[in-house]
Write a structure and sequence with these properties.
The chain is mostly helical. The protein is built from 6 helices and no strands.
Length: 149
């Protein structure tokens, strides 16, 4: 079990490096919908850390609750990307508006991965919960690679 926890921690550290450096100054000067969107993504990052800690402590309740909040966010996320909201300090790529279907698919993948994490934590299947968390992290990374500057 300790090896699993170490592996989970290592994976999360790699995942969080995607966010860490750019988010230190990301909110500086942000206003309106861009700031709201950045705040929501900051919340997502915090929830991912919380889920990781839940995995370390075998706390499936925290994992489920955090994943539910991420699921809720997935259902409203597209509302935070109106056309023209890619101006600095936004890190949103213009590809969001050039490939709206691809962006919808990326959000849907995040939604489905969040739902799967909820299901596996409710089933109390630790190994599948870990796998579901990894898959959720992959949806974040994949979307950021394609739709974030």
């Amino acid at each position: 079990m300790n090896i699993k926890k170490l592996f989970i921690c290592f994976n999360l550290i790699l995942f969080l490096n995607i966010f860490s450096f750019t988010q230190l100054y990301a909110h500086e000067g942000a206003k309106g919908i861009i700031k709201e969107r950045m705040d929501k993504f900051k919340m997502s990052k915090s929830l991912m850390k919380k889920i990781n800690k839940g995995l370390q402590n075998d706390d499936l309740v925290i994992i489920e609750k955090s994943a539910q909040t991420l699921l809720d966010w997935s259902k409203e996320m597209s509302n935070y990307f109106p056309e023209g909201s890619d101006t600095p300090p936004s890190e949103a790529s213009s590809d969001i508006w050039l490939d709206p279907e691809g962006f919808k698919v990326a959000i849907k993948n995040f939604e489905l991965a969040s739902l799967e994490l909820i299901t596996q934590s409710q089933n109390k299947d630790f190994d599948m919960t870990v796998n579901s968390f990894r898959n959720l992290a992959k949806t974040c990374k994949g979307c950021h690679q394609k739709f974030r500057n």
